[in-house]
Amino acid sequence: MEYYKIQLVAIVSFIFLFQNIQGWGEEGHYITCKIAQSRLSDTAAEAVKKLLPDYAQNDLASVCTWADRVKFYLRWSSPLHYADTPPRLCNFQYNRDCKDLDGVKGRCVVGAINNYTTQLLDYGKDTQYNLTQALLFLSHFMGDVHQPLHTGFTTDKGGNLIDVHWYRRKQNLHHVWDANIIETEEERFYDSNRDDFISAIQDNITKTWSDKVEGWEICSSDETACPNTYASEGIQAACQWAYKGAPEDSVLEDDYFLSRLPIVNLRLAQGGVRLAATLNRIFK
Ligand SMILES: *[C@@H]1O[C@H](CO)[C@@H](O)[C@H](O)[C@H]1NC(C)=O
Ligand SMILES: *[C@@H]1O[C@H](CO)[C@@H](O)[C@H](O)[C@H]1NC(C)=O
Ligand SMILES: *[C@@H]1O[C@H](CO)[C@@H](O)[C@H](O)[C@H]1NC(C)=O
């Protein structure tokens, strides 16, 4: 009996482990949150520190995948990780696209970013919301909205239904963008050292992209968060880079990897910079 129980637990954990990899993988989320926390104003850094659960030890990156881990029991939260768009239109329209599979409006990653931003504006007041959860959701979804295939086509579930090979391994296209490009980049160029990869991105934020960063940070008029823009950029990048040259059964190797890597780096950088900018506007 005990033996079967253990086996069952093993199988279930195995399934969960693999389902878990969704949205930027562990790496992508860790990286965006790490970049973001290093750019917080003193006031925002203080608020984040207060809101983080104790076990995070004031490291936002360490809990940046919390939202992926809870979606199996907080089932209502699973449509909030993405905003799929109609096939081949290559644009995002909130009213048309931001809904869950039952058609309930606002239930997509863009609606969720707005939702948790609004909740966090209650910080320091009496509130009905759990602002720790709001912070963890916002930090995670800001990463997700920057993964181009999180605004991919409804018909292929953002590339999840497109089977490809990543070098010699069977994979789906969504997962290639969640994890494989980042992992291969870390292995090949950073000796699998995540911190070195993060430093390289941060270096480019202050050098290569220095004249663009302010444009990434800014929201139009008096908005605190502007995820619509990020989703629009996302689906454009998906059409231009992710779907392109990656039909069903294709083998993706160096050509694809090396030409897409700059897009992934850019989206990781933008996600981090914008999460920080948003938190700095929330806690001012
Ligand atoms: C907004 O947040 C609340 C509390 O977590 C949640 O119940 C609701 O589903 C969220 N809605 C959206 C669109 O994110
Ligand atoms: C808020 O959510 C966090 C994370 O799920 C949980 O640990 C904490 O107990 C919650 N706080 C309250 C007051 O419910
Ligand atoms: C940083 O920028 C340089 C020059 O544009 C580029 O070659 C390199 O791949 C970039 N690295 C990262 C991690 O963005």
Automatic annotation (TrEMBL):
Keywords associated with the record: Disulfide bond, Endonuclease, Glycoprotein, Hydrolase, Metal-binding, Nuclease, Signal
Highest taxon of the lineage: Eukaryota
GO terms for biological process, alphabetical: DNA catabolic process
InterPro entries: PLipase_C/P1_nuclease_dom_sf, S1/P1nuclease
EC category name: hydrolase
Gene3D superfamilies from the UniProt entry: P1 Nuclease
EC number from the UniProt entry: 3.1.30.1
One Pfam family from the record: S1-P1_nuclease
Transmembrane segments: none
SUPFAM superfamilies linked: Phospholipase C/P1 nuclease
Catalytic reactions on record: Endonucleolytic cleavage to 5'-phosphomononucleotide and 5'-phosphooligonucleotide end-products
UniProt GO MF annotations: metal ion binding; nucleic acid binding; RNA endonuclease activity; single-stranded DNA endodeoxyribonuclease activity
Keyword Membrane: no
First and last residue of the signal peptide: 1-23
Subunit composition and interactions: Monomer.
Family: Belongs to the nuclease type I family.
Protein name (Swiss-Prot/TrEMBL): Aspergillus nuclease S1
Source organism (scientific name): Trifolium subterraneum
